[in-house]
Write the structure tokens for this entry.
Amino acid sequence: MTQDAEKDIIIGLECHVQLDTESKLFCGCPTTADEPNSACCEVCLGFPGSRPVLNKKALDYALKVSMALNCEINKEFFFSRKTYFYPDMSKNFQITQYEIPVGKNGYLTLSSGKKIKIERVHIEEDPAALVHESGMVMSKQTLVDYNRSGVPLVEIVTAPDMQSPQEARDFLDQLTTVLQYLGVFDEKDGTLKIDSNLSIKGNERVEVKNVTGKKGVEKALAFEAVRQKGVILKGETISRETRAFNEQTFTTRALRSKETEADYGYIFEPDLPAFELGEKYLNSIKQGLPELHDAKAKRFVQQYSLDEYTAGVLSRNSSLGGIFEEAVKSVDVGLAAKFLTRELLGILNYNNLSFEATEIKVEELVGLMQMLEKGDVSEKNAKQALIKYILEGVSPSKFIEEQGLKKDLDETGLQKAIETVLDENRPAVADFKKGEEKSLHFLVGKVMQATKGKADARDIQKKLKEKIEAE
Amino acid sequence: MDATSIADFVKQVVMGKISVVQHTEQVLSEIESTNSEFNHFNLLARDLALQQAKEIDAEIKTGRHKGKLLGVPISVKDCICVKGIESRAGSKILSGYKPTFNATVIKKARSEGAIIVGKTLQDEFGFGTFSTNTGVDFPTPLNPLDKSRSCGGSSGGSAGFTALTEFTHAGLAESTGGSIACPAAFCGVVGFTPTYGRVSRYGLMDYASSLDKIGTMGKTVADASLLLEIISGHDSNDSTSLPEPVTSLDEGKGEAGLKVGIVKELFEKSDEAVRKECEKAVSEMEKLGASVKEVSLPLNSEYGVAAYYLLSMSEASTNLAKFCGMRYGLHGKLEGSFNEYFSKIRSEGFGKEAKRRILLGTFARMSGFRDAYYLRAAKTRTKLINEFKEVFKEVDVLAHPTMPVVAPKFSEIKKLSPMQNYAMDLCTVPASLAGLPHISLNAGAVKKMPVGLMLTADHLQEQKLSSAAFSLEGALK
């Protein structure tokens, strides 16, 4: 698809983010549990006579999200009841915000610099989870797990400002980065559910409901863009409807037309008071906001003279940026940046690990970088130690010590090893002299082996060459 | 025979002059023998009551007793949750439902030594003025003074039994639009409804959450006030519960210096005989030292009933959505889609008036009608509250007939259209909509049927009501 062809695509997103609080939105039940239906009480089960009490932490988090997304804060707001019948709804109504959300009229900047308008940020409760033990089609019964009932969510609604599935994906990447910085979303266990709207300019819009994860949204939107253009090419009209996404086939199918859409009959939630947020409280939330990734990247470029790309990579994850800043107190900026963006992220990506999934300690990493800088360990062995640390938790300094990988090799030792290797591998030496570059690599390997990788490959190569040429 | 007041009863219990077990047995037998005739109870909590009674007797023997309600039998309106005791809010749809937790008011009453004797009959979920809108398969409670007449509603069983019993007793009742004052007036007892939020609603099965108030029913102002004082206070489990400290509901300084406002419209709209009894009671207040003047509540009299029914039905239609045969209460064979199953259970489990209010309430909040009905009613409510606030700048307490009529005969009630029926609430609805505390006490009688006088005070001014009612009650005896 060319850039031109995409200019007529219009995409808007509604993102439902599970807030990473200890307890639920309106009761004291924990948000995580091992056994189904083990973390619920009369409130999240919707027993008659039970009442909601707002979890202040969830409000704090929602305000942080609103502020980080540059929203205006409604200092006075209330909750509403959205009533519809569904087996996952313990009360057959959801407590949410309708007329007045916590935050409105904000924006989030894409990596291209384009600003996407945030129309609203509001707080609501998650319904229970419906469980189909043998899959949606084969299961004879539907089970309900109320552990999820009442888990706090923020819904973030954008204006229809995105023009391609890639832009939508970028939006979600930026959003999850912000959420990660704020520490309000658990990217590993928390869910991100997205309803997306896509239309082709001049045509009706179609909603794809309930897609989990960023990749899914991109795929669903890509399918919709192609499908809708196909419909138009055939001379048919696109009907306003809601569609579901199939995560196996990456396709969407019609769920219901607009005419049959539910009317939720919102009323003010009468079991909760209207809330008034004081200046002092709002200021304390504002002051508690961390420096976000955009600002951090800009600062890294200025303060450390990093290139924009590296600064961007280092600030995409708040922990990584933190480690970097800790490292450069004692280690060269270039070395730290390279070590973290190439080696550390490389290992994490290769093993499909998120930063939060590991228990990386700053001191260990900084220690390793210091050894590297002093020349106490070779790049290769440093990487080995890092892998061992990330995957098995073995302390790098201990690992290097125990394996005898410390670069205690002096110049005479290295020269001696080179001479031995040259003596034992005359045919390879001869091949190299004939112009076979590969043979030199073979010899380097042999020297590395003999010196347990304590010497740098480039250094060995240089010395080997000098020695052979001098023969 | 006058029953012993709660305060005196507790004194005798403490002195060991009354055996709580024996007294409880007597009350339970009275309920058993009268209930087939009057239908004041949905359920008798015999085992729970006797167990509590035994515990209290044992405590008294060891001298470890405490509590202002020691051994006092308390009846509980069916809509208030009692742990482990079937609680149905008068509805078939909650058949078999035994709450897993006690309502806060139950906890508070029990911690003062109260004995829970059973659940009293009511209009289903509180949807009525005469306790004739009881749930499917539920009987109708009868007025102890004339069995052909209504006890009033919706706390009909509560008022009926309070009037009927020969023993010391008080009732935990509930009002949304007048459901404590109305039956109290029709049965000739005292009904005390607090400021909205003064008493925790935790454990109250909702009718309309922004209007529901738990209050009390007693033979005397002293009994109703004592129980109300005990159940009042902030509760962190109810977000709409008020933080203000509870004032003691005592005899105070009575009518001396009290400014009483006679609400013109509500007198005018009441039956002449009822009006005269109330006028006599007000002149007693004057004799006791109150200054009396006429005040007017034109907006409340004109729009109160309409705003009340729109809001209460809208809220009720959402509060009742949770009853669908899935998690508790009435169940059926699982057949068809969840929609079909929910509809089947709801069709079977709800009575006619509940269905009417769900339909009307849902209509009033649907897009296209929401602005004209639900939202307009909500805005009207603010105006009506402001009208009260203006009047309370001039007077301390408002007075008017609780009900425009005496308890009607069932044959008369049958002839009422729903609109005529709703209009019966015109005197109790304004204070209810504004969340104002009010008390109904017996002012006299018309052909032996009691007439209630309703006194209303500004928010949190319950003390003014108890104080005024104490001395007026004494003067009217």
Remarks:
- The CA atoms of residues 332 and 373 of chain A lie 8 Å apart.
- Residues 411-470 of chain A form a domain with the Arc Repressor Mutant, subunit A fold (CATH 1.10.10.410).
